[in-house]
Backbone:
């Protein structure tokens, strides 16, 4: 027998500790503030929660050990991140929220020793936040990253960046930005991008506004950002020039999975709340949870939770083997984002009027999870990429048979 | 040939006038205020919009002619209400918003001449708003109206009402309430309810709070309301004592359909916005709207719009024939509420990040339409009622064959 | 009030007579032969059933009165065809089966007086059957009719046709063929097709084989047909040369709707059988039909039946107004074909093991209806066509605003 | 890191050998006989194929080593059974078809040494086939096993069995039967069943008929069977008296999973055929497989395949840990049966007319997989059982909190 799905005692213990922290400390704060991180106090509450997490030994489970983290691989992250995600503020509290979590991952893989010292260390320790500036308004880089229009032009001793970004999560209050800019080619080309590191207070970097969206739990907002002749020195290049799209893949595969882990936790909370409700409320001469149509909603939630988790386990294991896991992560992201939406929606439905009100957290959870079918690649783009690979392979096979 | 689906010139003209009014006057106000009627000014803006609607001759299309309305039957209301619903504020602007619209309908059918004079006349003219106080928190009257717990007890010259209601739309600022209270039997009994009319400022009637919900476009909120020894005189009984559940059906069948009409308008706006976006934006080397997966979303929206409209036409025609149309309205409501949710959701998806942001009205439309799968009977309750009738008929047929 | 959905007494009576005929005469024959028309006796049983239908005055309800039919318009056909479709053999029995029904419609609109005399008259009277030879195997005319490869070349006094067709319903035993062949242009061109009439016994016309398919109720099979230098005289041209694609639309819009009518009848039978079963069978301490999950299946069937019918009513009315009704027929066909599949599938599921066995007609109905999502244009093609028109209109509107 | 999803070299090799055998030997026979095992020669072809499998060292991968099998646990069976299931005849060919495979499993766990010698040994070696006689027509044991009506009454030296079974797979030609009969209590009681072993040729055991069903690939049919005073000696009791329902669970959990494994193989074949088609065929100016709506069908198939496999891996691992894995197997069975149906249906749709014809195996695969949503417990029953456990736990938790 080779398949093994149990976790080590260390991971199991970490999951339990994270669950306890979330239940005892984080959820009360989330609920008292309607899940709105700005209302709860943004960085003030972040520092407080992260300090408590640190003292409980559950801080930064994904970060390299040498930077104060627990060094978990992707497989072991799955149950821990899900436990943290049970509260909308949980990921922030244990320092695994987007985009910092993905940026830690990226810097650990690509940054130079000096860059690690200057940017990764304070980020991993929670001393500052970061932003990842890739997405642009139409017709720029969105679902199709090759449309990248932000330009970096060589200048003496560095580069001058001009461009317009949006949906830059956490930009407001970030200590530094990782900026994706085109250093060669034209919008539409599949290469020619470079990543740059820039302090947030550099002249020419402007956070214009928070874009108001359905979700409110992200610290630092989803922002619109402008670069006007932003200068970055040569040593600000992250990795190699023109290799930005490849690094983006390094970041995006795992980042997709950690998103699913976290939101799965939120979906489980919605399900737990709804099940607790229907197990108690009565109607039509019965406990609601004993009525067949409600049982169907409950069972479908269980199925969606189990399938999302099983696909996550698969994709994480593939990532841990060192491959790109492009199909497995696309599948887990697409199914997961849709399943999570369904789970929360059914939970709302099970609770009726209460479900659409703020007397329970379900209404806000339904707002929070909706964008996930768009963020990190809409379902349509993942399906398109998947099908292209599958049909492409079939075309090649046919050509080979024909020879 | 007997089937006829065209509308008279009068109705066609009214639709066009309503569309023009919505486009020119109402939508700009909705959009400037993020679709939040409280932000827009509640009754102040209501009076202003209704005055303009009156001057354009499109005010109260459903109200009896003798009360200043246009006297449309259900069939003719369908296209007019849909045109008004294209803006979230449109129904309020032409005075066909819930709950006033349904209350006008109810009073026109059931009220005594004196009650019509005192309550229907000012309501129909837009001089005051009203509330319909039926729904109660668990374990009271919700999806299952027979669970009614609010009690009216006979007192000298009238009745004394005690109870607790919630999700009472428009309660804050209403001039009067129609109150559903139990005058005989016990919670769970399928009879024994009576409707009462009470001025909002009667002692013992207290609007406790607005329940915060996903939707924000309803004037006067969804409120929690208490009756503490509220006294109503004998002449406040609407119709006959103990006949409340029957009158509720008089109100609910048509009210369900007018809800579908209005929300279908909102869904159409979402669709129109999304189609306009994908017809312009480019990605993956193509106009987005020429990509197959986007075409599928567009086509499915068209199908859902057409099917909702066709089911509405059927149900309205049956109501106009004078029957209860119980199956036809349950089908149109259930299909319509779910289809409207799908239409708006696909529209959001078509617009990606923009779709989940407040830069377009789609995010708020997605919030607004979600509760409709719960309000006016959750889909599960309508399906249950439908199946009970169908299976019940099959049981009877089997018994008859067996004899 | 202008909307009118009731039928005349004549139509109502015709529906009742058709139902009685189907119940008393046709269903017993269908069931005794497992729904396989070849087993039942093909043209022998056809002649017998049609003779009985004629004597009951319900024969050929769609055919022009001057050719012995009842001359119903599309709107009035809907309930009559649905009643006939309640048995898989019902449409054949009252002479409204594909492809004859559509061919009668086409010839009545396009044929010359001589052609009507020679082809339409015997067809309308049920003296001979016909075939419509359009579909070709890949890479020819299939979902995309413009791929037409069969060629007709001018010869002295007529045309010489060469080509390869398949899925030609009813070809085996047909008296004559309507043949779609390219008279100009090349495969891929959107014009250049002509329709020809040919007796089935003309030299060069060869019915190669029956294609075995999931459905078995079609008389004369779905056949593969070859034309090898088939000569047809000039007077065999149906309508004008090069106008074949336009005539195909004349035939296809209504033919799509009559397909939906007939299959809706079959779906209703499946539903009725399943409801009768669950109203009687017990399990889990209850009548199955009183269990919530079964109620949901029952209700969803009712919804799908009602929506299909409502969309049919709309599309037929539009066709009766004389327009192309392209959107309305595409919507009714796509929704209808999918809904009919769902209805039968749920009916199977409600009956469990019995449902997948031939002890009930449900298993065979599930086989019979599956191809309808492919025949007459797959759902994907209708969605594509719908979206193209909608997005195209939005593009034009944007261009106009830009000017 | 603890999660491990790779297989040993032995298992990987076995999968490859099984794939080769299926491709080279089994598929040609399946296709030449339209997937109908009776047409192919039933036990004659079975013996031939199994002999070849034995010589290739891939026979009976699940059977205990001491009985000539390869002794794989559930986890390792998953990829091997899926490889075999790629052909409808593959499971029979390597001797892992239902019901023999589940019966081997059951006897290995429950049978006495003498019973193993007499029944398990010849069964495991493929020398005879077996049947599992549990299901009864309504109102007997079906979805609800507690409705068991077949009775075994004590007689001198043994038991006398009377009852009526149906859907007894493989009954025609089986060497022996495992019979579930009630030894105490009444229909509706959740206990009181006993399993008995009986040779097929015992007097009083009568195989009445094959029930014609949508699926045709099962050797020995789905049969209706009668027991009329069938005598079995005391030593024919399998395990202990009155423990039959518990043993049924021992058999059913794993049997459900092996069903999913096999049908997943069949679904993958359907997908592969469809992808190969759309990668080659052209329409609408494109390769079909490059059109967005087709890409969506391809991607959804990939997602369904991956999710089914991932849920299988989870459930098998839980079974290998020795638990009942009741939730995990219910989830994998329910999701799997529905996903497999969707995969085959989409594959049919991708191929259009060809898809519903017997020119490709897709039409027959669509018939074959449909009953799986009913067999081994309809989806509704699994959902009900799942929800009961989940809601039950929530009720208990609420009671505990209340204390």
Residues:
């Amino acid at each position: 027998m080779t398949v093994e799905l149990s976790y080590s005692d260390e991971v199991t213990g970490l999951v339990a500790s994270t669950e306890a922290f979330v239940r005892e400390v984080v959820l009360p704060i989330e609920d008292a503030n309607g899940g709105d991180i700005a209302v709860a106090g943004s960085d003030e509450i972040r520092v407080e929660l992260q300090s408590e997490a640190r003292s409980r030994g559950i801080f930064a489970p994904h970060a390299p050990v040498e930077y104060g983290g627990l060094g978990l691989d992707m497989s072991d992250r799955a149950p821990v991140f899900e436990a943290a995600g049970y509260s909308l503020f949980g990921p922030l509290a244990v320092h695994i929220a987007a985009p910092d979590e993905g940026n830690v991952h990226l810097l650990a893989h690509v940054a130079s020793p000096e860059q690690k010292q200057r940017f990764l260390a304070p980020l991993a320790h929670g001393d500052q936040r970061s932003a990842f500036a890739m997405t642009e308004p139409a017709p720029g880089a969105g679902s199709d990253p090759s449309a990248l229009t932000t330009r970096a032009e060589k200048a003496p001793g560095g580069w001058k960046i001009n461009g317009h970004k949006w949906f830059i999560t956490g930009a407001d209050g970030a200590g530094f930005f990782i900026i994706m800019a085109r250093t060669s080619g034209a919008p539409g080309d599949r290469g020619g991008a470079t990543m740059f590191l820039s302090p947030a207070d550099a002249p020419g970097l402007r956070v214009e506004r928070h874009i108001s969206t359905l979700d409110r739990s992200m610290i630092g907002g989803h922002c619109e950002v402008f670069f006007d002749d932003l200068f970055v020195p040569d040593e600000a290049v992250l990795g190699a020039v023109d290799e930005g799209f490849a690094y983006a893949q390094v970041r995006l595969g795992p980042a997709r999975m950690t998103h699913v882990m976290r939101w799965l936790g939120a979906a489980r909370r919605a399900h737990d709340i709804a099940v607790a409700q229907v197990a108690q409320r009565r109607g039509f001469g019965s406990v609601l949870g004993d009525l067949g149509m409600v049982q169907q909603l409950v069972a479908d939630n269980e199925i969606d939770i189990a399938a999302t988790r099983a696909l996550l386990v698969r994709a994480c294991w593939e990532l841990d083997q060192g491959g790109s896991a492009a199909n497995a992560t696309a599948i887990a992201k697409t199914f997961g984002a849709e399943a999570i939406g369904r789970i929360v929606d059914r939970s709302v439905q099970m609770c009726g009027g209460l479900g659409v009100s703020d007397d329970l957290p379900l209404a806000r959870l339904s707002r929070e999870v909706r964008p996930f079918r768009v963020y990190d690649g809409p379902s349509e783009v993942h399906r398109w990429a998947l099908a292209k690979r599958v049909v492409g392979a079939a075309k090649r096979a046919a050509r080979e048979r024909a020879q």
Observations:
- Chain B touches chain A through 47 residues (CB under 8 Å).
- The first helix of chain B runs from residue 9 to 32.
